[in-house]
Amino acid sequence: GVLHEDLRLLLDTALPPKRKKVVLGVGDAKMGAAVLEELGVQCQTGGVVAELMRGIRLHFPALVRGLTAQSAAKAQLGLGHSYSRAKVKFNVHRVDNMIIQSISLLDQLDKDINTFSMRVRSWYGYHFPELIKIVPENSMYCRVAKFIGNRRELSEESLEGLEEIVMDSAKAQTILEASRSSMGMDISPLDLINIESFSRRVISLSDYRKGLQEYLRSKMSQVAPSLSALIGEVVGARLISHAGSLTNLAKYPASTVQILGAEKALFRALKTRGNTPKYGLIFHSTFIGRAAAKNKGRISRYLANKCTIASRIDCFSEVPTSVFGDKLREQVEERLAFYETGEPPRKNLEVMKEAVVEASEVVAEVKRKQEKKEKKRKKREKRRLEALAAAAEETAENSVMETEENDVGAKKKKKKKQQQPEESEPEPEENGVEEEEEEEPLPKKKRKVMAEPEQEEEEEEKKKKKKKKKKAAARDSEED
């Protein structure tokens, strides 16, 4: 209802000052109402105005100076991109696109696993045909076929492993007895390897399907908790997928939700003037199956009404909760009991009052938890910033200290360089005298005096040695 400022400025500058009798042609009725409310200018919409607007858009580059066809095309492309971006921009935790893709994949996996399991049955049935009647379930049959392999190698030692797979000791004993008296043909090791490999692939697909179902359940509890609590995760996801989005499903009336998924039967009935279908996808819920044949149409209409309310609550509530879904489910249960026993159900006003009180408490609790998480996050962020600031200060101080040390070192080096030439100069007389006394060499006469006693001692030792040799030689000659 409020006109955009740019459009207001454009109209103020483009329209003449006396604009009371001016009639403005606008392509959109809502825009015309907004212009009339804000500016008091009468606006006209209709077929002629639409054609004029189309002509203006077509020849816009020729009507505006400086605007080329290429730039106009770029502007239109950018507008289209921004519009599409705004259409697909949702909250990350409440995106229903993931639900649509996962339920489609789940349905496709069901078909593929069923087909592959039948292929394993027909392939392994040539070797062990009696196993099909003993183990009718597809995934369990693939596991048993992979475990047994060649039936001739099955013995009493394998009973424990069979019991773990089939979860029944009597059934495991029956499989063992049937393998001993089977009428199946023998199989080569190469064929057996291929059958085991294919069975392994089918088992892995079955395990992946279980994980995908858990993922779908978690996403539905986030996006549409009330709808999933009312009708189940799988049926609710199918309704969202068939409608295209949760918003589209919320816009549908209850009569459309009731026959959603039965469009072919509806158009066929309208064409042949027959009975229209009573239910579509909601037939897979447990309520319609539990109702009597004469009450199926009534309970499907009532259930479609409650599904519409639940989808609107999920779509437009700020904090999605499953309180309303639980209350709506109780209402459907009471309506079923009313059809069977005649016990009057509670009024819708009373149930919704209770649901509003409980939902307000749940929302308050959720908001309190979110505030706590936000406070913790802010504290962690503050601590992280303080740690970063402290680290930055430490690095700055270290850099300052290093620069000061470098400056001090440089100053010391300069002082040493300045002191070295001063040290080379002659010092006071006392130091000079001492150094001269220490470094002054001895005269030659003193050297001779110091060397003479040493030489005399050596000569005396030599004389003594010679005397000893002579005495020894004399003794030797006397003995001879």
Folded structure, characterized:
The chain is mainly alpha-helical and 480 residues long. It has helices spanning 5-14, 29-39, 47-58, 60-63, 69-88, 97-124, 131-134, 138-148, 159-166, 169-180, 189-223, 225-231, 233-243, 246-251, 254-258, 263-272, 286-290, 296-316, 323-341, 348-424, 429-439, 444-479, and strands at 23-25, 42-44. It has a two-stranded parallel sheet. It comes from Zosterops hypoxanthus.
Q: What is the radius of gyration computed over CA atoms, rounded to a whole number of angstroms?
A: 51 Å
C-alpha end-to-end distance: 155 Å
Q: Given the helix and strand composition, which structural class is it? A: mainly alpha
Shape, principal axes of CA atoms: flat
Average of per-residue pLDDT values = 82
Q: What fraction of residues sit in β-strands?
A: under 5%
Biased composition (Acidic residues): 422-440
GO molecular function: snoRNA binding
Pfam families: Nop
Family: Belongs to the NOP5/NOP56 family.
Task: Summarize this structure briefly.
The chain is mostly helical and 480 residues long.
Indicate the topology.
Layout: H1 5-14, E1 23-25, H2 29-39, E2 42-44, H3 47-58, H4 60-63, H5 69-88, H6 97-124, H7 131-134, H8 138-148, H9 159-166, H10 169-180, H11 189-223, H12 225-231, H13 233-243, H14 246-251, H15 254-258, H16 263-272, H17 286-290, H18 296-316, H19 323-341, H20 348-424, H21 429-439, H22 444-479
Parallel strand pairs: 1-2
Provide key terms for this protein.
single chain; 480 residues; mainly alpha; Helix Hairpins; Serum Albumin, Chain A, Domain 1; 3 domains; two-stranded parallel sheet; 22 helices; 1% strand
